[in-house]
Amino acid sequence: MSKLQDHSLNFNFNLGILRVADELKTLTGETIFIGVLNDDSVLATHIIPGSFPTRTHYEKGEKLPVIKTAVGRYILAFQSPEIQEQNRVLR
After folding, report:
1. For residue 62, what are the contacts with CB-CB under 8 A and spacing of at least 6?
2. What is the distance between the alpha carbons of residues 74 and 89, in angstroms, rounded to a whole number?
3. Can you spell out the DSSP letters for the chain?
4. Which of 21, 52, 69, 86 could form an SS bridge with 32, CB 3.0 to 4.6 Å?
5. Which pTM was predicted?
6. For residue range 41-89, what is the model confidence (pLDDT) as tens digits?
7. What is the rounded CA–CA span in Å between residue 63 and residue 36?
């Protein structure tokens, strides 16, 4: 059994990601946007506001066009050519 499948590690992946994201926000002052691919959209799972006066106006649970967001393009970069092509056509 791989360590990723070993539930005895007692590691909450979600909390680990949020801890790192919060540290990144502290170091950069930037807003941190975490999302997942959902068909042709990115579903905002977490938004950690930065410390700069300009803000994004996204809400947790909001869907954004995958091809129109930085996080969407990043996610697409690691997808299969088929998924990349499907989303290229949607522009």
Report:
1. 43, 44
2. 17
3. --GGG-GGG---HHHHHHHHHHHHHHHH---EEEEEEETTEEEEEEEE--SSS------TT-EEEGGGSHHHHHHHHTS-HHHHHHHHHT-
4. 21
5. 0.69
6. 999 998 999 999 887 788 899 999 998 888 899 999 999 999 888 887 5
7. 10
Query: What is the amino acid identity at position 73?
Result: R
**Tokens found for residue 49:** 């506001």
- Asked if 79 contacts 37 with a C-beta cutoff of 8 angstroms, the reply is yes
Nearest CA to 66 out of 81, 88, 33 is that of 88
| CA atoms of 26 and 29, how far apart (whole Å) | 6
